[in-house]
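Case study B.
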Amino acid sequence: MKEFFQKYVIMRKHDAKVAFKKMKRSKMCYLFLAPYAVLFAMFFIYPVVASIWYSFTYYNILEAPRFLGLQNYISLILEDEIFLTSIKNTLMIAICTGPLGYIASFVFAWLINELPRWVRSVAVVIFYAPSIAGNCYVIFSVFFRGDAYGYVNAFLMSTGIINKPILWLINPVYMLPICMVVILWMSLGTGFLSFVAGLQGIDGSQYEAGYMDGVKNRWQELWYITLPNMKPMLMFGAVMSITQAFSVCDVTMALCGYPSTDYAARTIVTHLFDYGFSRFEMGYACAIATILFLMMILCNKAIQSLLRRVGT
Amino acid sequence: MSKKKKNAAIEEVYVKPLIKRRKPNRSIAGDIALYIFLVLVACIMAFPIVYAVSAALKPLDELFKFPPRVFAQHPTMDNFSDLFVTMGKSWVTFSRYLFNTAFITFVGTAGHLIVASMGAFVLAKYEFPGNQQFFKLVTVAMMFTGYVTQIPNYMLLNKLGWIDTYWAIIIPAFASPMGLFLMKQFMEGLPTSLIEAAKIDGANEWLVFRRIVMPNVKPAWMTLIIFSVQGLWNNKASTFIYSEEKKTLVYALQQIQAGGIARTGQGAAVLVVVMIVPIAIFIFSESQILETMASSGLKD
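Model:
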């Protein structure tokens, strides 16, 4: 046993030496990477670690952090009803818009793939524009205005479906569905671009081989040839849409107000802002951030292992 | 004679048909249905944007007409000139907001492009200890949003003394993981022999990077630029910047919209200014962006 251990140590030492020599030889590489690596560590790695650490403390910036243990998490889950509402809302939005937006991205990319070149590029602009149009979603607050001048109210009243205006963005019943519609409108984003580009890159001879082997219709073509070729893009698109689905806050804040009536449109990120930047309870806010972080990472891992089975 | 005929026959086979043959497994009815469906969806997608643009062109009396019309009957540029004339007299002028956003976007994007390409270059083309691990870390960082890191970021920036300066927005934007990821994936497609040839000719790494690699990845530049601009141009920055004269365009937009009915026209005009820049960049660089995105896949 001891001999074995010694051998192991010697081997490790040797490995370390080799690695160190290699590192010395590639000094140039580290110099090139250094600016990015330093900034990345400062603004992405350190904050995640720090936020996990602060989540176990009471910290309000003025006093030094005081260690609390799991108290923050316990009060989040057991005492904070608004947090539970916000989790419910976030999950509702994520479950409704995430998969739907993802599938829509793929379906539209696939449908426009066979169009002539210039039609396709126009279509890409039209479909992609909402997601980069910045604050354009505030225009929906004009459509869904609560008085009779709002377009939707005016339309519904003139057709006689309702006889008095509905307060779309103030009534908790309608808030979430409207937010979901707006988010879906914006959901053809980076993943969509990746799909369009990936579909263009599939080798045409594979389809010809498929016809020879008896592929009969579009659907078989999709399942047996297109999807397996698109796997890396599908993974990338999934990461993008999950990240987006969980971080909804701009749309709900702009449309339903902050805070919204009865907290009906509160999401996890809104809750985080409230505690972090309005009440300055940093420890509590960091606990929220940590929960959000874990949700995102776990969901991503789960979806990736699911996507690995596509087309096999 | 017979030889000529044979040649002609051969040529006929190899002449490309003018109209591309339709793919098998497609029915005309299905294609027509598909076109109609796509046109319908495109109309729905485009409607809010078209409406926003036409609202900015409407004179004041048309904005409040009932029943509302989608297109302006007498389009004017009054709303845009109002932004500079009326708001030119206020304490912080509109052009100042515009300058703030433009400055943040320009510097942030330029820095991001340089820093991320330098990192991506060595990650894609050189083997060194820690190479794979670092890249894995970057891909993990794409899986959560910036909101998770916002609070420790605030404290860090506070300690550095950058709160309430432009740098609070600009410097973190340099390290966006998305840009490094796309750049690295695209650079992997660059032939290694190109770099080796330059090395044999006596170029050092910096020269290779500046003269060989960067000119060859121009499509990826545009992609990095569009993602960075999209993030920075739409940045509200209300948590990191609190002096009025350093606030951004999106913040001004919210103020104007909160100003109520009297400023509806100006609000619509700012909305157009905010959204036109990313869309314009995208339209001009679409083919290059798609070229880069073709290598965006996540392999494992």
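Chain B touches chain A through 91 residues (CB under 8 Å). The remaining cases will be described in the next quarterly update.
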